[in-house]
């Protein structure tokens, strides 16, 4: 069959995916190679890009995510709304669902992820995952008639929903001994829990406590680890997430610790589900709710075929090296779809977050541009230090380095300063050096912590004074 010109295209750089990783990659290519032909192929006509970049520290930024129709994108690269179906890496071309063949010189896969449901990827209408606007609209529709909702999971989405849902009974099932375990330790979880309970009460005399603990004194969190792009920051503010229960009644979520879903049975006419929970002590409990939100992580999205096998990691991500190269020649990958397969720097590890999608996308763009000009680039400095800026339970949160002692074994100490309903500051120290920090309710220390982690200054001589509220450590270490 002869392809019509519209059925066949050619470009130097082909980027697949209109999420933050794909758009950052295309933008960075457009900067490095302004005269090259760059094509962004995306399945959804709504694309995401980063805007309002505000520095929180030297290497740490917060930003907004802007949603745009592809037709409104600037002219620095071309766009095509279609779905990647097959990669022929030996011929350097791909085929789309609509049958378009695109020849490329360099390809970058930024196809993101989909919710990893606890029950597998089957289509039970009463078990939903949250990823894009469509999935939130589905949640919104279900909430309108719902009185009881179950949230399963203990990461970002579960924490946001448990805090944001209104006029509905929330049953929050977590397998850990504390909430929000993906991000925080038991102490911070307790801080959030108290703050949730005392939401409107003003404490006139906050008591500040400083505690130094050996690692073994706390329960560590073991470090593990037709789709539109993932939602943007504060996505819940643009949707009314109210159930059908009595208005304006503040209900706290009921939390089921150390529990898991044993079985789910649908009621007739999809009127709800009967859930049997299994608690850690071996006991069972039965609950009825309208539906379940499975906020149980992300599965990299690789629903396309390839002539040669791509190398995948055990979490389903496409393995990439420090230049974001996959195992296939001239094929790169970035964002949620990939798994960092390079020896990680001392203070960095991968988490599927906007910041890293943006950083990886930009890195892939620079790396592809360099390959095309036979130049050498080095890995960006951002991969030296893990940093995440977010909001949890209404508090600003900054996470730096190995903020939960990830990968430090049992050989570290933590120093905590906590002021009820105000701030929770944690330093993770190893051999007197700062290895990670968790700053809740107070971002002012972010830059100092960044410096202390990267410089590896010995803090032993300062003892507990480094968190003494009467000593301004920003001045101390300037
Ligand atoms: C509800 C929610 C809240 C979040 N909140 C935060 C937060 O507060 N902070 C934070 O740091 N991170 C947050 N995240 C995570 C963050 O959104 C993701 O890590 C990030 O958006 C990943 O970007 P990406 O570009 O890799 O993937 P995606 O945003 O998933 O984009 C993938 C793109 O690829 C396209 N695509 C997929 N398959 C194909 C194909 N075959 N052909 C063509 N196109 C295809 C899709 O249409 C999409 O445009 C949140 C995620 C969710 C779901
Ligand atoms: N504020 C922020 O930064 C936000 C970030 N996000 C990001 O969006 C993505 C999706 O969020 P989310 O779905 O919450 O994913 P997360 O990876 O944040 O959390 C998933 C949680 O579910 C738990 N879990 C996994 N499988 C099961 C299971 N079968 N039964 C019970 N619990 C299970 C995980 O435990 P374990 O880790 O022990 O496997 C973990 O606590 C993530 O990349 C997240 O980082 C989302 C919302 C807000």
UniProtKB/TrEMBL annotation:
One of its GO terms (molecular function) is oxidoreductase activity. Keywords: FAD, Flavoprotein, Oxidoreductase. Residues 14-193, 259-361 form the FAD/NAD(P)-binding domain. Its cofactor is FAD. InterPro entries: FAD-bd_OxRdtase, FAD/NAD-bd_sf, FAD/NAD-binding_dom, FAD/NAD-linked_Rdtase_dimer_sf. Transmembrane segments: none annotated. Belongs to the class-I pyridine nucleotide-disulfide oxidoreductase family. PYROXD1 subfamily. This is Pyridine nucleotide-disulfide oxidoreductase domain-containing protein 1. It comes from Drosophila yakuba. The gene is Dyak\GE13296.
